[in-house]
């Protein structure tokens, strides 16, 4: 219960008719007060904008050889972050690679959340044998190390953006499913769900309008962190040479820089920094959202 | 005392609800029969755990099964037996022809939907209304339950409503499809006394306006006296007495009803302690073989714990299940 709910409950009836005051419980109010969420959003926005406008800012193909190889960062104004061993511009590469990393991260997380929400809600709401089966299936998925599992999926389906997204989603939906199932179990016997049944609502309707909207906060938080871990998994896959060979991603840049790590470490460090920055921003956003959506946490 | 002769809208015969538990089968409602006609208010009273709410939930088959097993001769409503109706057909009756309001209006409203949307949801489900027409009807319903500025209030979330207003909103949702029967499960228990009176007045006048049958579940005899036409007293899942409200308050026949009446505060005689009924409601797992109330009864004798007393007519149109009750029809039996 938020403070407002409680105050509305205990205040005399006429208190409700006071002029509208600032709603301290509203999402936007709390969001703007949360420094973590704001910093996370700002960082993510920077990366997303870079990815969206990558083609405008850096028109050159990131895989083109545009200068002599091994220009160190901050030594040539034309190539501020230097070039790699084939003479490809690193800044262009970083920005274009962000597109792939973000696209993979967001679509894998979206797919995982969709699968998790459907399975979790069905399993938690109906219980019984449906729950038994679905819980066993999630457990089977959780017994396998996610990265190895993703490697297997991508290797079988041949590396491409699609197979990488699928591989990551398939390994990460069980955690969302468990979360949604637990929330659904909690809400299934809530009085307003009972009331909806009394009003003659069908199961699908109850799940969509009464259970999921009330269960969504932890899913949003878990989802934003899932994007971060999907980006990391994509980087790991690309590093292992299981990335899409026609596209440049942060992971494949690190993979390429590995061979010259001792002489030109910047080639590995720069995409590494990009990954760290993005993942950090997403984690901050996730933690911030957790504070914002959880009314029991007071924001300083 | 209206409409006693008019045909029943809802006729319940031998409704029995059992719960399958690890320790065995518990009978929460035991062969309960009653009926209610249009425009009539039937109150079901009894202590906590006597099966009042289970009865209400069982009428619409809202109990999760397993563990609950609902049986009985019939629950007849508009020519259909609700006990044997398919789930899908039953859903068209729930909220449409038979609606229900709950004890705690705070938890019975979805916190993430506006009050208006929650009314519209029911309208969409059971009436043909859509879009602007549904919205207009929702505002009308809020106006009907006397919510000030209904048009503005419709777009508010439940947490902006006071307790009494939430219960009004619940009533508006329940009335959305103009039901023939409204079941009110302790509708005023969570509200303070002044609001309680307003809600009861509202329910009474709405019932008159709309000609609904009202089943009022309560443990508050004050509420019952003000609202009901007929009273059904339950004890340990069984009906022990059913009388018109005037007869019951003039002369309760069952010792349990008498004890309930004594346990209620009376302003005319101030005192430090209220009378209480000794002991507690017996566990459903081991009910005594005879009258379930016998162990707590002040007038019980051996025969009471031997056989279960049958429900016999009390002569004034009511019925009572006590061998010690002075029966109007055949004189005092005991």
TrEMBL record, chain A:
<keyword id="KW-1003">Cell membrane</keyword>
<dbReference type="GO" id="GO:0005886">
    <property type="term" value="C:plasma membrane"/>
</dbReference>
<feature type="domain" description="ABC transmembrane type-1">
    <location>
        <begin position="98"/>
        <end position="286"/>
    </location>
</feature>
<comment type="similarity">
    <text>Belongs to the binding-protein-dependent transport system permease family.</text>
</comment>
<dbReference type="GO" id="GO:0015031">
    <property type="term" value="P:protein transport"/>
</dbReference>
<feature type="transmembrane region" description="Helical">
    <location>
        <begin position="263"/>
        <end position="285"/>
    </location>
</feature>
<keyword id="KW-0812">Transmembrane</keyword>
<keyword id="KW-0813">Transport</keyword>
<feature type="transmembrane region" description="Helical">
    <location>
        <begin position="147"/>
        <end position="170"/>
    </location>
</feature>
<keyword id="KW-1133">Transmembrane helix</keyword>
<dbReference type="InterPro" id="IPR000515">
    <property type="entry name" value="MetI-like"/>
</dbReference>
<protein>
    <submittedName>
        <fullName>ABC transporter permease</fullName>
    </submittedName>
</protein>
<dbReference type="GO" id="GO:0055085">
    <property type="term" value="P:transmembrane transport"/>
</dbReference>
<keyword id="KW-0653">Protein transport</keyword>
<keyword id="KW-0571">Peptide transport</keyword>
<dbReference type="InterPro" id="IPR050366">
    <property type="entry name" value="BP-dependent_transpt_permease"/>
</dbReference>
<feature type="transmembrane region" description="Helical">
    <location>
        <begin position="37"/>
        <end position="58"/>
    </location>
</feature>
<keyword id="KW-0472">Membrane</keyword>
<dbReference type="InterPro" id="IPR035906">
    <property type="entry name" value="MetI-like_sf"/>
</dbReference>
<feature type="transmembrane region" description="Helical">
    <location>
        <begin position="102"/>
        <end position="126"/>
    </location>
</feature>
<dbReference type="Pfam" id="PF00528">
    <property type="entry name" value="BPD_transp_1"/>
</dbReference>
<dbReference type="GO" id="GO:0015833">
    <property type="term" value="P:peptide transport"/>
</dbReference>
Automatic annotation (TrEMBL), chain B:
<keyword id="KW-0067">ATP-binding</keyword>
<dbReference type="InterPro" id="IPR013563">
    <property type="entry name" value="Oligopep_ABC_C"/>
</dbReference>
<dbReference type="GO" id="GO:0005886">
    <property type="term" value="C:plasma membrane"/>
</dbReference>
<dbReference type="InterPro" id="IPR003593">
    <property type="entry name" value="AAA+_ATPase"/>
</dbReference>
<comment type="similarity">
    <text>Belongs to the ABC transporter superfamily.</text>
</comment>
<keyword id="KW-1003">Cell membrane</keyword>
<keyword id="KW-0547">Nucleotide-binding</keyword>
<dbReference type="InterPro" id="IPR017871">
    <property type="entry name" value="ABC_transporter-like_CS"/>
</dbReference>
<dbReference type="GO" id="GO:0016887">
    <property type="term" value="F:ATP hydrolysis activity"/>
</dbReference>
<feature type="domain" description="ABC transporter">
    <location>
        <begin position="10"/>
        <end position="261"/>
    </location>
</feature>
<dbReference type="InterPro" id="IPR003439">
    <property type="entry name" value="ABC_transporter-like_ATP-bd"/>
</dbReference>
<dbReference type="GO" id="GO:0005524">
    <property type="term" value="F:ATP binding"/>
</dbReference>
<dbReference type="Pfam" id="PF08352">
    <property type="entry name" value="oligo_HPY"/>
</dbReference>
<dbReference type="Pfam" id="PF00005">
    <property type="entry name" value="ABC_tran"/>
</dbReference>
<dbReference type="GO" id="GO:0015833">
    <property type="term" value="P:peptide transport"/>
</dbReference>
<dbReference type="InterPro" id="IPR027417">
    <property type="entry name" value="P-loop_NTPase"/>
</dbReference>
<dbReference type="GO" id="GO:0055085">
    <property type="term" value="P:transmembrane transport"/>
</dbReference>
<keyword id="KW-0472">Membrane</keyword>
<keyword id="KW-0813">Transport</keyword>
<dbReference type="InterPro" id="IPR050388">
    <property type="entry name" value="ABC_Ni/Peptide_Import"/>
</dbReference>
<protein>
    <submittedName>
        <fullName>ABC transporter ATP-binding protein</fullName>
    </submittedName>
</protein>
